[in-house]
User: What shape does this take?
Amino acid sequence: MSDEGRAFLERCQRILEELEAAKRSIAHARAVPEGRLCVEAPAVLGRLALVPALPGFLSQYPGIELDLRLRDAVVDPAAEGVDVGLRIGHLRDAEVVARRLGVTRMLVCASPEYVRRSGAPESPEELHQHRCLGFVREGRVVPWRFRAGGETAHFEPAGPLRVNDGDALKALAVAGAGLAWVFDFMIARELASGALVTVLDAFAADERPIHALYQSPRHVIPRVRVFLDFAATLLGAPPR
Assistant: This one.
């Protein structure tokens, strides 16, 4: 082989090596969870479940810049530029791409002081004898749901105190103002610390799934994938 041929061959080999290095660099960039991630969630779920755990998530994935939007209005994630939208309850749109993250239950809770002072109801029928805190949504008090004897019963709290904020409702229960009907994730820390106790657990009927809505399931980008696994672990579903 001539000197010119050997030089040409060596140059071609260097080009191929550089091309392979570039391909490996691109593959690594696609595999590393990094970049801006926009997550939208209901306010109470975001404040009480997500926010306390986010520092650990960001510490594990320092390349991710998280934009968290807390609001109760239902929006189209794609139209709003949202990468992941969390939803509580059954999904209405069968065409959306969703991953089930877990299930939340509605529980009746009270402070130990309230139970000592007023006793604990042993059936939903006894709720009329108690101070029941109402939660207002869209101008109406949300009825409580129970299961008894194979049937679902509704109870409309008619106590002297109503609020339209989940944090305020929990704070009132902790303060001993009465019984409250809340999502289980809202009071997990208070139950663990003893600040709240639950009653009527045997009659709990209202279970609601928690889903994550996102874009195409075929090409889930790394930052979305790791957040979905994080949220699933946090909210009760096994990671994929």
Observations:
- The domain at 105-206 is CATH 3.40.190.10 (D-Maltodextrin-Binding Protein; domain 2).
- The longest helix spans residues 3-31.
